[in-house]
Amino acid sequence: MLITKLKEKEKIVSVLNSRNVFIFKCFGCKEVYLPEEEIDLLLTELKCMDRTVGVDYLCREEFVERYLERYKERLEKVGKVVVFSCGVGVQVVAKLIPDIPVIPGCDTHYINGFQGLKAQDVDCQQCGECWLNLTGGICPITSCSKSLLNGPCGGANKDGKCEVSKNMDCGWVLIYKRLKLLNEDEILKRHPVNIRNYKLIITGNKKE
Ligand code: SF4
Ligand code: SF4
Question: What angle do CA 181, 184, 190 make, to 5 degrees?
Fold first, then answer.
């Protein structure tokens, strides 16, 4: 089981206030608690409901492909997409619309319990502070062998493979390429060094 929390207001309000944004809100599922009421309150307060669609299972690529097809015309006109879901849902949307910046509206936290079997290509390690807005929608925690927030390390090969395994793409090369496609690679220079806050992981009854 995992839990999602709405991102701190000041981190998402400026994006949501833009008329040029489209919003997907997942209805959540048994494995993921989503603060739906809180999300709706914020979207209502910011008068964003006309730009929001609620959908089921944003973690399922085959569903998301259909949602994107259905809202194709609206998506062609927007500059950004905000996704309220767990980290998997945000990554699936970002993977399918790689040329539109996708911003997470929630942070995903770990809590104890069975996590279920995952059939997705992407994963979220519930780090408690979603970085996908800075990494082109590719998770640095799960796509990098060392879960670096400031990659790439010195070991990335010229062919874009990770030094840990030549069968694995370097996550940070993928992030750089995605940001380049989005014309947002300046983020890597502009943003200060990211430091992971391990206290944000809710440990439940696990010994720290
Ligand atoms: S950065 Fe990765 S691990 Fe952290 S919440 Fe986002 S998707 Fe999950
Ligand atoms: S080569 Fe890339 S994926 Fe591998 S550890 Fe270094 S930064 Fe991470």
Answer: 150
Beta strands in the chain (DSSP E): 2-6, 21-26, 32-33, 52-55, 80-84, 102-104, 106-110
- Residue closest via CA to ligand 2's atom 7 equals 152
Residue ranges in the chain modelled with pLDDT below 50: 204-208
- C-beta atoms surrounding 45 within 10 Å: 11
Q: What is the pLDDT of residue 115?
A: 57
- CA-CA distance, 66 to 89, in Å (whole number)? 14
pLDDT digits (tens, 9 = 90+) for 13-50: 999 999 899 999 999 887 788 999 999 999 999 999 99
pTM above 0.90, yes or no: yes
CA of 127 to the centre of ligand 2 (A): 18
Q: Which residues are near ligand 2 (CB < 6 Å)?
A: 144-146, 148, 151-153, 155-156, 162-164, 170-172
- The alpha carbon of 163 and the centre of ligand 2 are apart by a number of angstroms equal to 6
3-state secondary structure of 205: coil
Residue 128 CA, ligand 1 centroid: distance in Å:
7
Q: Given CA atoms 77, 10, 33, 145 in this order, what sign does their dihedral have?
A: positive
Distance CA(157)–CA(48), nearest Å, equals 44
